[in-house]
Amino acid sequence: MINIKVPTVGESISEVTLLRWVRNNGDYVERDEVIAELESEKATFEVNAEQAGVLKTAAQEGDTLKIGDVLASIDESAAKPEGQASGNGAGTESQKAEAGSQKPESTHVSVSQPSDFRPQTSDLKSQGAVTSVPNDIKATPVAAAIIADKKVDPKSVTPSGYQGKIVKGDVLAALSNPGKVTGGNPLFSREERREKMSQLRKTISRRLVEAKNTTAMLTTFNEADMSRIMEIRSKFKDKFKESHGVGLGFMSFFAKACCIALQEWPAVNAYIDGDHLVYHDYCDISIAVSTPRGLTVPVIRNVESLSMADIEKKVIELATKARDGKLTMDELQGGTFTITNGGVFGSLMSTPIINLPQSAILGMHKIQERPMAVNGQVVIKPMMYLALSYDHRIIDGRESVSFLVRVKELLENPDQLLFGKDPVKTLLEL
Hints:
Blueprint: E1 2-5, E2 15-21, E3 28-29, E4 34-39, E5 44-48, E6 53-57, E7 64-66, E8 70-75, H1 93-101, H2 124-127, H3 141-150, H4 168-176, H5 199-214, E9 217-225, H6 227-244, H7 251-264, E10 271-273, E11 276-278, E12 285-287, E13 289-291, E14 294-296, E15 299-300, H8 308-324, E16 337-341, E17 360-364, E18 368-374, E19 377-391, H9 397-412, H10 416-419, H11 423-427
Parallel strand pairs: 12-16, 16-17
Antiparallel strand pairs: 1-8, 2-4, 2-7, 3-6, 4-5, 6-8, 9-19, 10-11, 12-15, 13-14, 17-19, 18-19
Helix pairs in contact: 3-4, 7-8, 7-9
């Protein structure tokens, strides 16, 4: 009998939560097969079987476990049952055929990149067309097709199929009773439910309160005319994707602009360590990514040395890993500055909270057309409010405002992103 213990996942992490069992108690598992998913305060990771044998679970889904606790045991002396499929895809032809007839059980939603400025809410009126079924909702292929075609909110459909799966009849019933909850449930209910906070949510809560209580946090605002960037994206997006295999988003422009401004105002790129100020000659930018489990802030290293395409590729890579819970500890630690994009959810203005131990965070928001006075004329411009929350213990008002004004200048004149200053002044050595 081999005991499988909760592994060490980081120096500061002492406990984890058992998210789910991939294999059930009594199942025969192969060596290195994934048997469970655990969630720490920073990331989700898998646990593999150390030997082949019969799995005997020692914890329940949702349990909080200490590092080193016994998660399960494996009876390696047990014989593999005849005809049983292993978790790596082996099995009988009939089992494979059955699995094929049930595929797909659900349709996955692609991760929205932080660089996309599209609202992402569960409300159909603000979200627009429903094109797929979320990961946590199961539906038959026919039902999923009707949901996508008729723009039905999957959460408004009461499933009646096997193991809570939405079938064709459930969707048709929801379409025939718009605005009502199917299955006999009242439209308005006074029911409540209690759910245990995940390790990630508890960590988010603790760190946000800590940031508010331990920093002298202030927020300064400005606005940027996004016309030039939108013109560039419209003109070159097809060629850019053809050349680099990735779309040209907004995040690369903001990351580049922040890098130049951070090098000019190094206090914004520093943090307090005891009685010392730690400055950085590099820009490791944390990108806030919203996932079903909560907010994560993976880090893009040395952004100052990356191309626009490299940044966009890295954003997609990290956002995908965040959704799948595959981020490593190294990808979540060590950022020097954070960018968060509330605009993807429709936020027009906000005051982001500093991501400790960093000293500042930039908030992007929704691009909104507004009338602006230009040379004595009223012109409609695509404008975005920018918010910089900063630690006043490190960053003075002059530095914070100057930093944000510099970011605004670079966004409104993206040709300066190449040189860090006006190309004409560079040419004239001014």
